């Protein structure tokens, strides 16, 4: 299913036939347009990693189960191994590379993950952050039950999940406090 590694093998084989099957797809990733040459079967996660070059989005199961590949598609979390790249054309994609500032300042969610020790090996973290980000950006703050439900498609083999839920809850609570403080001024 995946075209992983095709760039290399195709170049070395010089197979014009494989090239012909490719088409240009314009992906808008983190506010920048990238025109990539992909096959109709190319998964979005492979386009992001291998063609756009953003490898913060991870591949875990490759079969819709683990959530490691979660990105935002028009602000909604999607598992990028379940979509073809062509299906994302014209949509706004956000990957974990867009979280946080260029100067190294952590996003409040990242800070909360650090404060709550919400990762160990970190393999699931990009997906956890992207699923949480959609929730964090909502106007109405989620409660703990909603946070759990929102993360149900993201698997972690290390943390036992409690610290991840704690981290998202902490970030949401901090945001609420900051909003209240701003309103009081
Ligand atoms: Fe996409 Fe696991 S790699 S859900
Ligand atoms: Fe290792 Fe989640 S921190 S898989």
Please tag this protein with its features:
185 residues; globular; binds FE2/S2 (inorganic) cluster
Can you characterise this structure?
The chain has 185 residues and is an alpha+beta fold. The chain contains seven helices and five strands, in the order ααββαβββαααα. Strands 2-1-5-3-4 form a five-stranded mixed β-sheet, with helices on both faces. A hairpin with a 2-residue loop joins strand 3 (70-73) and strand 4. The longest helix has 23 residues, at 162-184. It is globular. It starts with 5 loop residues before the first helix and ends with a helix. One FE2/S2 (inorganic) cluster (FES) binds next to loops.
């Amino acid at each position: 299913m995946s075209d992983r590694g095709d760039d290399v093998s195709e170049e070395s084989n010089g197979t014009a036939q494989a090239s012909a099957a490719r088409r240009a797809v314009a992906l808008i990733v983190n506010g920048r347009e990238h025109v990539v040459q992909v096959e109709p079967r190319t998964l979005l996660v492979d386009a992001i990693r291998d063609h756009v070059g953003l490898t913060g989005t991870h591949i875990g199961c490759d079969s819709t189960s683990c959530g490691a590949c979660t990105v935002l598609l028009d602000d909604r979390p999607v598992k990028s191994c379940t979509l073809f790249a062509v299906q994302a054309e014209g949509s706004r994609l956000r990957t974990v590379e867009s979280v946080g500032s260029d100067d190294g300042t952590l996003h409040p969610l990242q800070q909360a993950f650090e404060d709550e020790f919400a990762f160990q090996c970190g393999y699931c973290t990009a997906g956890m952050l992207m699923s949480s980000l959609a929730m964090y950006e909502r106007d109405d703050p989620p409660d703990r039950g909603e946070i759990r439900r929102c993360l149900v498609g993201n698997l972690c083999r290390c943390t036992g999940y409690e610290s991840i839920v704690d981290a998202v809850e902490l970030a949401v609570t901090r945001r609420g406090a900051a909003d209240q403080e701003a309103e009081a001024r």
